[in-house]
Write a structure and sequence with these properties.
It is built from 3 helices and 6 strands. The chain has 124 residues and is of the alpha+beta class. Helix 2 crosses helix 3. It starts with a helix and ends with a helix.
């Protein structure tokens, strides 16, 4: 029994050493989080030269709409969460989230994205 407890203590100690997930801090780059090697999250660039977190959130909303799945992304060290219910941002995965767009603003964003998607589909 003592060996089991010692083993569990060692595992707990090692898991405490794991580095917490942080969002990339690159200036002006919008990121999307994806499954990386070894099952750990990895960030992949969506677009460079983005000037605000809100503009990055719009890009991520477009990805959510195109694929029908929630999207987690990042902009300048902050996480962005895009779900069917809302678009929110936080300083870390366990931090309090705040809404990026009001429901009315998000509806306008979605209308704009739908217009762009329809134009692209039509070839124009």
């Amino acid at each position: 029994m003592r060996r089991v407890l010692l083993g569990l203590g060692a595992v707990a100690a090692l898991s405490g050493c794991e580095k917490p997930l942080t969002a990339p801090g690159n200036t002006g780059v919008c990121w999307r989080m994806a499954d990386g090697m070894n099952g750990k999250p990895d960030f992949r660039p969506v677009a460079p030269n983005i000037d605000t977190l809100e503009n990055c959130a719009v890009r991520l909303e477009g990805i959510r709409m195109a694929y029908g799945q929630p999207v987690t992304g990042a902009f300048q060290g902050r996480f962005i969460y895009v779900t069917d219910q809302e678009v929110s941002a936080a300083s870390g995965p366990k931090s309090q989230r705040y809404r990026v767009f009001t429901p009315a603003q998000r509806l306008e964003v979605q209308k704009g994205i739908q217009t762009l998607m329809a134009r692209e589909k039509a070839g124009g």
